[in-house]
Amino acid sequence: MANIARNLLILAAAILSGAVFTAPAAAQNEQFIPILSYRTGPYAVNGAPYANGVADYYNLINERDGGINGVKLLVEECETSYATDKGVECYERLKSKGPTGAAFVNPLSTGITFALTEKTTADKIPIITMGYGRADSKNGAVFPYNFPFLGTYWSAADIAIQHVAKELGGFDKLKGKKISLLYHDSPYGKEPIPMLQVLAKKYGFEFTPIPVTHPGVEQKSQWLAIRQNRPDYVLVWGWGVMNSTAIKEAASVAYPRDKMIGVWWSGAEPDVTPAGDQATGYKSLMLQHGAGRFPVHADIEKYVYAKGKGSTEPGKVGEVLYNRGIVNAMLGVEAIRKAQEKFGQKPLTGEQVRWGLENLNLSDARLQELGFAGMLKPIRISCADHEGARDGRVQQWDGKGWKVISDWYTADEALIDPLVNEVSTKYAADKKLQPRDCTKES
Amino acid sequence: MLYRETSQFKTTYAEDMAIFPIRQDRIALGVLLGIAFIGLPLLATFHIWPFGGDYLLWAILLPFLILALAAIGTNILVGYCGQISLGSGAFMAIGAYSAYKLATGVHIPLAWLGFAISIPPLPILASILLGGLAAAGVGILFGIPSLRIKGLYLAVATLAAQFFFDWVFLRVPWFTNYAPSGSVNAPELNFFGVVVQTPIERYLLCLTFVTVTAILAKNLVRGNLGRQWMAIRDMDIAAELIGIRPLYAKLTAFAVSSFIVGVAGALWAFVYLGSWEPLAFSLDRSLDLLFMVIIGGLGSIMGSFVGAAFILIVPIMLNLIPTELGVPLSTETITHLQLIIFGSLICYLLIKEPRGFARLISIGKEKLRLWPFPY
Question: Cβ contacts (< 8 Å) between B332 and chain A: which residues?
Fold first, then answer.
């Protein structure tokens, strides 16, 4: 009896202690921003540096500028482990915190983006998916709350093929070549397939998609197939441990690493360092920026790390995914600043921030002021174009660091837009949505 | 004290055999249903604590109800009929994708025969129920091996179902209506003209499904069929000798279980997720359901609810506590702590009470009935 009573007591304590989950203590002049991150699970090696970058940049805004025009940023992190159901739970947990609720959300997972797209639209909270997410959400008329900044996977696919063509010596040389796509078997990995099929038809290369099951540590049969088929190029659409495994497996079947081109999520330090020397020569796309330090990093050192408030080791500031984190955070912060011009210098709702995102216009001069010159090209968002910019370069791992090996490529809108319109129109029809008229948006 | 049963006389066989023979139980159940159907929605409508936002409804109650439904289904197969199944996630997926196909219209071109099978989009309720039926059909199919193989070997056979359907829904684009990303969107939830949209409406919808299913399941396991299942579970050879047909008993258990799990899968996809990919119904989901019924109590409908609550809610609570108390821990540490504490909690519970929460609760109830001299 005593045992059972004790059991029940412990259990009751465990359950009751959960009942404290209200009690929001928020000052009034604060803008709440949730961070959905993953520092555990199979994708933690890539999720952690990104989350550190995001957290450090928000910290920088608070420490250096005292917030955005005096409105402090209130940030809370929630661990998703890259799992869709946990991501949805985190979003629900954080969406109405702070005086005005979440300003926007960056899920850093295409699966979570798909699951949240409808919810965020209903809750009027923008969802920023920089370099990932649904490619069709470029069409802001159908997806008013989705912002796939700087490039979608369809843009990435086009840029990758442009680079292959350049290495081969022209688009006409693509004819008859074999290009395989080694992809993470999830919405993330499947996104580029329709675009690559369009490109394969246009240029006459033979396209083979090769799926890798989540989380991607088992790739023996895939690389056996590659060894037999001997494609001219292998595009890698991997994430986390899948990338380094792919490089190691490529080495074991002696597939040349310089014929592998990773997407911008397969081109960071944690993707190549575990493979050691085998990774030398591996190439990947860049989502505009790469690794390296810029003026903004000096500020982060000075205002965040010097005060002991940094979220990682100072040596890791400037890594590829860390930089992606700060770019992501910067675009969100600038959108809030833009929205404040219209709605006043106070905490804003998600709907107001959405206006700021849609009217975001960062010129070269502004990027220079922000300390991002050299990392990014100017970006301009509009109702019809929620992507803003579709430029990329290619970098190569030389065993110690990433070297930029190409000029800028710009994805071909004439190729991508018909597909965007087709898929987004179908989505609108399925969901019985009335697309906005972008000519009437201010 | 609580259970003073004086003056509760039972004069007929029907009264003796009633689903809740004790008056206090009936009252408690009535109160519970009243709170669930009327109290909670009222609190949520007026945003009274703890319903500050939608969080409690969306992120806790909705998944809890749907997973409890799936756990009831799993419990019928594993707990009542003793057939260990690792394929519950697959049956959820079958329910979800069949309902999706039926709700968006089925078109199967049979070119070599010169015609096509076309079914127009069905109403959502019909789609969900037929999704359950489809899962039941597949459940029967995968139940056939259970006539020859038992125990752990059967678990491995159902594991095959899990992997097979993971593969099917990932690779056969027909099931996802050729969606480029393989992720599909639920159709509009229109029930006879009423569009279910807000969290409260979704909650009530799931609650209705769960209540009806739980009552039906409870009656089923008390009846002829349920006794056959339990006889098979306790000793299949003895059951056969006293005239129970294993073929019938086992396959009905597979069918009923898969039906309920399939309906839960359709609700999970349509009502909770809204947009999903096969990963939502992976092996992890199957294992979660199995843990729910083991921890909640094998062979108990109520245990399914408690088990679902434990597996779903305790990790979330463990995760919330440090943040809410303002303990400065990184999310990483909190997540690791959560895993450690939750894991040890499961070990502790199973050592102390291997028959799960249902057993704890029934012991507690017996003691209360004998109060003040329990033994």
Answer: 39-40, 48, 79
